[in-house]
Amino acid sequence: MKRKQDIIASRPSVRDEIESFSIPEPMSGCFLWLRSVNSRGYAQLGLFNTTVLVSRVLCVLYRGMDLDNPGWVAMHSCDNPICVNWSHIKPGTQKENIDDARAKNRLAKGIKNGAFLHHHHKLSEDDVRQIRKLYANGDISGPELAKRFNVGRSAIYNVLDGVTWRHVK
Ligand SMILES: [Zn+2]
Asked: 22: part of which helix (H) or strand (E)?
């Protein structure tokens, strides 16, 4: 049986098909897929009387991966499931894919909470006194204090627990 690999390689039109079924998105550099997607929203293409993920086909065409080998997944650096720009897609292991998703999820959460944006904000002694006073009065919670003073939650709890700024009374 001829390997899918060789069939794709012998069909240069696959590259052109993928290109012609997508439009570039100038902001992100993504190529947006205009044809069908699978149930999880990923671009797919009919090949070999079945459907295959376009991201996988791109890894075969541009990264030398073996389509018949199930031991790898195509990972999007842009996290856009309909993106078919091969330079945004690289092969990885299932584990790398999960780690990558976790890391991105953490990053997104961190940015949302201001943990990264305001990481370097420094508290003053006055801030510290005010934080302790507000908290002692029960006016405001730890996470709300973090927001108001533009610092991470752990910075607030460290202040409240006396781990940091112990000298400030
Ligand atoms: Zn992309």
From this structure: strand 22-25
